[in-house]
Amino acid sequence: MIRQKVRFQMIISVAALAALTGCGIFPRHTERDCMERAMYFESNRSSRDGMIAVGSVVMNRVNSSSYPDTVCGVVAQKNQFAPGIMSRKMDGRSAAIVREAAVSVLKGERHPMIARAQFFHAATYHAPYNNIHYVLSTGGNAFYEKRPSERVTQSTPLPQIEGITGR
């Protein structure tokens, strides 16, 4: 009986801590952490342009009424970014580069060619849809807007371009 009571108290304590974490009293990740995670897992070992483009897509989603209104809400959304994006370990070797790019995007830098794009996929992937309007390929990803098919003027990924953003 005592064991059951202790076990029940532990379950309640864990549930309470989880609830507090979820409501932001004990945040697990800051907005910068979430932006770094998006850049790291979606464009790690690519280019600064690739990281800034990924960050620009995240911010386009934050500013859209179709997605959560926080960086962490967007990045943690199920099936939208790399599996395990919020829980996998990041290698510290590229931390300074990723951090600089994340801070820069959070301060307002955007990739100038992203426009309103809210989506991307690996540049080598060939999507079978007719509503994809590509705006940029950089850092190993192809970035695009979804449009009505009659408004698509760039239906194939563009050649990779680098060196647009600078630091």
Automatic annotation (TrEMBL):
Gene3D superfamilies tied to this protein: Cell wall hydrolase SleB, domain 1
GO molecular function, one term: hydrolase activity
Residue ranges occupied by any Cell wall hydrolase SleB domain in the UniProt entry: 47-144
Region (Disordered): 147-167
PROSITE patterns xrefs: PROKAR_LIPOPROTEIN
Pfam families per record: Hydrolase_2
Matches recorded under InterPro entries: Cell_wall_hydrolase_SleB, SleB_dom1
Keyword Hydrolase: yes
Keywords assigned by UniProt, alphabetized: Hydrolase, Signal
Source superkingdom: Bacteria
Signal peptide, first to last residue: 1-18
Name of the molecule in the record: Cell Wall Hydrolase
Organism placement in taxonomy: Bacteria, Pseudomonadati, Pseudomonadota, Alphaproteobacteria, Rhodobacterales
